[in-house]
Amino acid sequence: MASFPVTFLPNEKTVEVEPGTTLMEAARNAGVEITNLCGGNGVCGKCRVRVADGHIYADKHSINLLSKEEITEGYVLACQTPVNAPMTIHIPPQSAVEEGQI
Fold it and tell me: In Å, how far from its chain's centre is CA 83?
């Protein structure tokens, strides 16, 4: 089966994942933690990330939780966005889980 590389910035970690894997799952596989308060149900909006390279668009969950400006800038919810091509994802500071966070 085909797989796609997903690179997470600013961590500069890359992982190969199967098509349909969510960005949240890909991040975990790469050892990168993204804030996720709702357990991946797409209702908290805390896992917003920006697609820096790749063609993924906001889904209905993202549209309800992100501003028009964020959507235009390429933001999506990591827990709801499947990987369908090679991509680079930028994790903004407010979505990154810092070491030692409880």
Answer: 9
- What are 36's two structure tokens? 């996720």
Answer yes or no: is pLDDT of 64 > 90: no
In angstroms, the CA 83 to CA 80 distance is 10
Query: pTM of the full predicted structure?
Result: 0.88
Q: What angle do CA 42, 17, 81 make, to 5 degrees?
A: 20
pLDDT, tens digit, for every residue of 28-51? 999 999 998 988 888 899 999 999
**CA distances in angstroms from 36 to 21, 47, 82, 96, listed in the order given:** 16, 6, 16, 10
CA–CA gap between residue 71 and residue 58 (Å, rounded): 7
